[in-house]
Amino acid sequence: MVLTLKIDKLKLKSSSEETSNADDANCANTDDIDEVDDEGQNILLALIAQLRPGMDLTRITLPTFILEKKSMLERITNFFQIPDLLFEANFSEDPLDRFVNILKWYLASWHIAPKAVKKPLNPVLGEYFSCYWDNLPEGKSAYYIAEQTSHHPPKSSYFYIVPEEKIRVDGVVVPKSRFLGNSSAAIMEGCGHVTLGKWGNELYTMSQPNVYCRGILFGKMRTELGDHIKVRCEKTGFEADIEFKTKGFISGTYDAIGGIIKDSTTSEELFYISGKWNDLMEIKDAKSGKKRVLFDTKKSVKVKPKVRPIEEQWEYESRKLWKPTIDALSKRNHEVATKEKFKVEDEQRAKAKTRLEDGVEFHPKLFRLVSESEPKAEDLEYIIYKRFNLKDTPESLTHNVFDIAPIVPGQKFEEKFHIPAFKKHDSNS
After folding, report:
1. Which PANTHER family does this one have (predicted)?
2. Contact call for residues 365 and 145 (beta carbons, < 8 A)
């Protein structure tokens, strides 16, 4: 009750005129505004007073002023906003060049994030998000589908495909939040799989760095990525171990990375990686000692995804589901944002209670459990229910995508899309 009253009294930094006349440009910038003023700090302290080190934060309701204006399902699309890097990898004839370019694409994508300390909205069970790109290099298109396949623990499963280039990406984001005292940590247990059909279904697997929010109790709040990630291609034997270095209490610097690329079949060290994941990254040849720029994030050209109009969206599509909350966040009206967010979460609790009373299990609509015949995908747990053969024509692959869910304008969530994924799998395998 005390926490609710404090949220209601939160002093917004924008003027009333700005609040009532928020336009698209203003909405786009609010994720870059740090709104934790003195009153906001008091709200956090009231919340933290209830916590103990190591406590799971996934069931804690956070104040809305630290929320980004998008669901985690949409946040994942940040990784597909520098398509030229992914294409560069696919165009590389040499296997080692392909591996280096895949690593470059993956490392470069982490810098696409709000400038302020913000976290995406937690998707509700069964929520889904789809989008597309029709303006990629050489006029190519890409499609993305994601669904919240589990709520406790939260699991966001996603699928991305570029039919013309036979590029496919599958993944799952599994953040497990912990309170650490002056910091909170999101331990990222998910992974990503990149498949290059052009190169005989060459598969790259990658883990994720953990995310730390520092300065909750004292000091300036900021986000850090930390710990090691592994990127590996079993077919070629190349692998990378990259450390996202967190700043020490006395020494060190923010946002640094360092790591190595080696041939796992011979243990030969090939390249060393250094720099900052949100600035300049460099690569050094282990034999010659020659160093060059791997990627300069200041020169990145981002291609944002496109989404169907709100009026064509199903009630559980991310942007429609969270629209009242997002609109309030855009205007920095946190009282309304809190109420609208609670409505969505309260409905989620009611549905969970009904399922429990009726003895009904939840099944995702668009993703299915990985089968025993797919051992290379078992760490994903769920994959898109439709089976794709990257040897098929781009037209056939695109048709398969459109059979899964509405993605482009003019498509609506028709009755056929409501059939649970496990039933679709039984009839379409």
Report:
1. OXYSTEROL-BINDING PROTEIN, OXYSTEROL-BINDING PROTEIN-RELATED
2. no
